[in-house]
Amino acid sequence: MGKVLMIGAGGVATVAAFKINKNADVFTDFMIASRRKEKCDEIVKAIGNPNIKTAQVDADDVEQLKALMRDYKPEMVINLALPYQDLTIMEACLACGCHYLDTANYEPRDEAHFEYSWQWAYKQRFEEAGLTAILGCGFDPGVSGIFTAYAAKHHFDEIHELDIVDCNAGDHHKAFATNFNPEINIREITQKGLYYKDGQWIETEPLEIHRTLTYPNIGPRESYLLHHEELESLVKNYPTIRQARFWMTFGEEYLTHLRVIQNIGMARIAPIDYNGQKIVPLQFLKAVLPNPQELGENYEGETSIGCRIRGVKNGKEQTYYVYNNCKHQEAYKETGMQGVSYTTGVPAMIGAMMFFKGLWRKPGVWNVEDFDPDPFMKELNKQGLPWHEVFGGDLEL
Ligand SMILES: NC(=O)c1ccc[n+]([C@@H]2O[C@H](COP(=O)([O-])OP(=O)(O)OC[C@H]3O[C@@H](n4cnc5c(N)ncnc54)[C@H](O)[C@@H]3O)[C@@H](O)[C@H]2O)c1
Ligand SMILES: N[C@@H](CCCCN[C@@H](CCC(=O)O)C(=O)O)C(=O)O
């Protein structure tokens, strides 16, 4: 039924590969391609299915991507490489008639800045080609948008306030490590904060606003307001929203390391000259930090990500909290990866499954909330990310 090419062979891609392999009734043919073929072969070995094909590709190079797509002829390309490659992969998909899905919006390498405009600009070309592009189908962005769409469809006539809350209460027993690509992660959390209020975007200093929020099965954790890309599409798609914010938990130890990294210039993304060689300090830092793919074995604890929503239903004020908790050890036992990779890779697979089942298929470039959330929500329960709801509770925000 479905021939899929996945690009990238990191932590998120490894989880998606395990899940694609488990859903072989939907994904009949599967190839993994990345910058290093050996990494793809390692995933195939870990899964133990020699029918999965592998290939080498530099996804910064449109011509190489086109050659691979013309040769393998996938129906859909799942982009689990880095946000830098979104546009080259979309270009190649258009040239080769392939549908497209990713989990993070495009970022230029030389500017730590993310917004959807670059990818939304492809809408007309995908429409004219009769191709579907699904943007931001990880957990956040991804499930956070689907939770919001589900709330809007079933529990609210109008959503007024949306708070996306992302807690990782796990302990990997390292002094400092990021849970996904360190370069992308540190660029994200060291940016200025941004939130939406009464039609305006309000900028804050990085991590300036914080609150103690209580997470189910975890307890209170300090949570910091960050800019996160799904806010941009959600306020556009749900115009009744008056306030939209994103919160992420950080421990004291983590923040101390982050402060030192920034103060000594290691978070810089502009190249410096070192002994006649150009190096980017943040890329060098990535090379010495623990590999997020190797954190799983000793990881304890769990993540909790959800949406806290305030609005009205049938003329009455309503609060609603929908969330998933994911245990790092359970993710590790199933896929060899920790919970942050798991919570991203599983939704990427489900998004592709929605496409191949014909449930999320329409020409153009779409965010996940543009599709029916119901079949996706059902699959979350079946594929390892069960969700829970609280009606009428104290949202703390
Ligand atoms: N939406 C979410 O909830 C969410 C959460 C975490 C991560 N993410 C996104 O998931 C993606 C993957 O994250 P990860 O932790 O697996 O990262 P990773 O660094 O472990 O893996 C990235 C993979 O892409 C490959 N790659 C990089 N540049 C390439 C190129 N030019 N050509 C071919 N392959 C290339 C790398 O070799 C690696 O295999 C990132 O885009 C990240 O932003 C999304
Ligand atoms: N889903 C998140 C994943 C990052 C989790 C961030 N929390 C930090 C906190 C670490 C700590 O306080 O020790 C983390 O890296 O897990 C995303 O979209 O970016």
UniProtKB/TrEMBL annotation:
Its EC number is 1.5.1.7. It comes from the Bacteria. It comes from Hoylesella marshii DSM 16973 = JCM 13450. Residues 138-385 form the Saccharopine dehydrogenase-like C-terminal domain. InterPro entries: NAD(P)-bd_dom_sf, Sacchrp_dh-like_C, Sacchrp_dh_NADP-bd. Keywords: Oxidoreductase. The keyword Oxidoreductase applies. Gene3D superfamilies: Dihydrodipicolinate Reductase, domain 2 (3.30.360.10), NAD(P)-binding Rossmann-like Domain (3.40.50.720). This is Saccharopine dehydrogenase. It holds the Pfam family Sacchrp_dh_C. Residues 4-134 form the Saccharopine dehydrogenase NADP binding domain. GO terms for molecular function: saccharopine dehydrogenase (NAD+, L-lysine-forming) activity.
